[in-house]
Amino acid sequence: MRPDTPAADVDHAAEAARLQRTAALYPEDAEALLLRAAAHLEVSGDRTAATTLYDRLLASPDDLDNPHLVRALKAANLWEYGHAAEARAIIDGIRTTAPRDPAPWVIVAEALEAHDELDAAHSTFTEAAELLIADTEHPPQATHPLLFGRHRVRRKLGADHDTWDTLADSVNTLPVSLDELHDPTRVWSLGSENPAELRAEITRLRAELGAYRQALSRPFPVAVLHWSATELDELLASYPSLSSEYPSHAAHLDAIEAALRELSASGTSNLGIVSGTVPSYEAFAAAEGTSPTDAALLPQYATTLAARGRAVPWPPEQGAECWCGTGKTYGECHGTPPVPVS
């Protein structure tokens, strides 16, 4: 399902079944695919089946990439259909283990907030912020929901602004301030006869909807295919005809950055990079009934990897390592704009 597919047009049960079939074909991506399947089951109302998928993942003999995320999603789901005590126990366990990924913190804090346990939600958001953000002047984008959620809960509690709230305001990019967006006593103005009040309320609602879409969406990006130096050497040794696509590894890396910059300049958002491997590419070609020498297969392979949750967002965040694997920061490597030839 593409991110722009209207919700009313989605058969969530069928989409969940499709994702589970895909997970069986690609066990290395089962975690990401089954989490998406569970989300569809939750939306369809089959929360028991969603819990079964979470339990299946947690019982897997293979190590999960993010077991805390799976447990957090399971807890939030359990609470929605009457298993509050079990959900609280899982949430307590997550807070005790203090994961370094912000996503589980956001999910359990919002679960507490949704069930009016505002003090517990506030302390959970705060614990996460102190652990993952500390005194960082430019917090990573993945931690922004922690700041926004904490701000929202503090507004509900009637607490005064503190330094974390100021930081939340500084990273807010919506056209409406967080104070206004999170105002618990905001007057519903849609019935007003004053056009100015009506326009202001529509602006607030659009901003709120945009925030929810950003928080809830898990679209796969427009992805460009990347080969490491070792994998590209193996690819070209096995399929020399592809050398016309990849004259050298350095040229390949430059072409990736140039393509992404061009897409960004044209207004395309949600860009990413997927890294290929020769065995995976050969298996994909076999599944498509096509020879790996067919260059037209390469973008299809990239799209498939992205749909399986393999994409890394582009551009990297400020101070993050470059996507190419040199170990340098993006700003020191491919993030430096090319010097125009005079």
List strands and helices in order, with pairings:
Blueprint: H1 12-25, H2 30-44, H3 47-58, H4 67-80, H5 84-97, H6 102-114, H7 118-132, H8 144-157, H9 163-171, H10 178-181, H11 195-216, E1 222-226, H12 229-238, H13 249-265, E2 271-275, H14 278-288, H15 297-307, E3 312-314
Parallel strand pairs: 1-2
Antiparallel strand pairs: 2-3
Defining key terms:
single chain, 342 residues, mainly alpha, three-stranded mixed sheet, 3 strands, globular, disordered N terminus
Q: Looking across the biggest beta sheet, what order are the strands in?
A: 1-2-3
Shape: globular
Q: Give the count of helical stretches.
A: 15
- Rg result: 23 Å
Average of pLDDT:
86
Class from secondary-structure proportions: mainly alpha
Count of β-strands: 3
What is the helix content?
Answer: 55-70%
Largest sheet: 3 strands, mixed
Beta-strand fraction estimate: under 5%
Return the string of H and E elements: HHHHHHHHHHHEHHEHHE
N/C terminus separation: 46 Å
Low-pLDDT runs: 1-7
Question: How would you describe this structure to a colleague?
Answer:
This protein has 342 residues and is mostly helical. The protein is 57% helix and 4% strand. It contains 15 helices and three strands. A three-stranded mixed β-sheet has the order 1-2-3, sandwiched between helices. The longest helix is centred in the middle third of the chain and has 22 residues, at 195-216. It is globular.
